[in-house]
Amino acid sequence: MSQTVAQHSYNPTYIPEQDLPLKGVRVLEISHMIMGPATGMTLADLGAEVIKVEPVDGDRTRRLKSAGIGYFPVFNRNKQSFAVDLKSPEGQKLVRDLAAQTDILLENFRDDSLLQYGLDYSALSAINPRLIYVSLKGFLSGPYKNRTALDEVVQMMGGLAYVNGSENRPQRAAASVNDILGGQFGVIGALAALHERERTGKGKHIRAGLFETNLLLVAQFITQFELTGVPPTPMGSKREPPWGVYDLFDTKDGGRIFVAVVSDAQWRTFAAKFMPAGWAEDQRLASAIDREAARPWVVPAVAEVLKGWNMAELCAALEAVNLSYAPVNQPHDLLRDPHLTQGGALMPTVLPTGEHISTPALPIEMDGRKVGKRSDPPKVGEHTVAILKSLGLDDESIALLRANGKIGG
After folding, report:
1. What is the residue-wise DSSP string for 20-38?
2. What is the DSSP code (8-state) at residue 14?
3. What is the C-alpha end-to-end distance of the chain, expressed in Å?
4. With 0-12 CB in 10 A as exposed, 13-18 as middle and 19+ as buried, what is 224?
5. Is 29 helix (H, G, I), strand (E, B) or coil?
6. Contact by Cβ (8 Å): 201, 211
7. Which among 22, 50, 223, 405 could disulfide-bond with 46, CB atoms 3.0 to 4.6 Å apart, if both were Cys?
8. Residue 54's closest CA among 24, 69, 74, 33?
């Protein structure tokens, strides 16, 4: 991976806990997998006290392997774990008691799942009218409202897999884009309702949907079709970009790099720096339209020139003249990206198993400071006893709940 970022002496700083914007806000998270935990993590990072309600033996996401092994470690920092048997009346009462003292509740289960436990919005808002209840679902209102969905499901039916694949083979985006982004819309809804509550004194039921999130992600392609009558060409098919140089190129040392030259001024800069004499003044290439038409001979010529550079030198040369470029990396290459490591975007994290990993900070800064990590992902039920004592339970009552299998930790 290229190490072309200037080696400044960065001192990344994080906002102190007492200054975090959501300090004093309590969140009860009843969720699993990605969409719900991503919502809870964002609120937790911003300073909210997030209590994660888990089964007595822990969120099953903790036990995923292979491609799912990163779900729990990434999305559950800065949270407390409250392990309780929600199927029991005792467990349901404990969660209702917590909800009575909560500002925001997050859930991503089927509507009837929490209804049967008396933990639906109607039941909980009756005991806490100020409660903001955030439901993270597959679909919002409409004929599909009660369908079960996954990120891959909505990518397929929502056209994202089509534009990301090839004509005959739709391909989902590898990242859980709808789960993660949909969770952030849950955050936006929660914060809007929290602001409104200052005026009205009342909470609200917020819903965020995977399918509707996907709709926003493909909106530009829908509008393209409406305005031109031409559907988008899938990314995996032969596709001609609207610029002369907007392609992947090979380097001398076996790397691959994406280079984008989109404006006339950028073209003159690029041609003067990298191409043989006369290219910058060639009138056949004077405008973006000219260069697009000339792609059949321009792109091979550029490729021939660039394959004479090694990756590090080419990145440095492109950056020196402020042209857009990107080495083709694998995700784990980012662990040694100097911008991320020096800028504080990767935070050391210790898992309940004792393993050490790096997790990304929220991609925002406030007055130049990031929101950081106050606590690592918790052990199952790590905070159960402390939470129960905050509800007024004594040691004997807690011991009885544990003996009867109603709580964990």
Report:
1. -TTTT-EEEEE--TTHHHH
2. B
3. 43
4. middle
5. strand
6. no
7. 22
8. 33
In the block, tokens 């909800």 appear at 99
Calpha distance 248→233 (Å, rounded) = 18
Question: Comparing C-alpha atoms, which of 329, 363, 291 is closest to residue 46?
Answer: 363
What is the number of alpha carbons within 13 Å of residue 244 lying toward its C-beta?
24
d(CA 42, CA 179): 13
Return the beta strands (E) in 108-198 as ranges. Answer: 132-137
Tens-level pLDDT at each residue, the chain (409 residues) = 333 333 444 567 899 999 999 999 999 999 999 999 999 999 999 999 999 999 999 999 999 999 999 999 999 999 999 999 999 999 999 999 999 999 999 999 988 889 999 999 999 999 999 999 999 999 999 999 999 999 999 999 999 999 999 988 999 999 999 999 999 999 999 999 999 999 999 999 999 999 999 999 999 999 999 999 999 999 888 777 889 999 999 999 999 999 999 999 999 999 999 999 999 999 999 999 999 999 999 999 999 999 999 999 999 999 999 999 999 999 999 999 999 999 999 999 999 999 999 999 999 999 999 999 999 999 999 999 999 999 999 999 999 999 999 999 8
Token pair 């040392």 is found at 253
Distance between CA 5 and CA 90 in Å, rounded?
56
CB 130 within 8 A of CB 197: yes
Rounded Cα distance between 117 and 86, Å, is 7
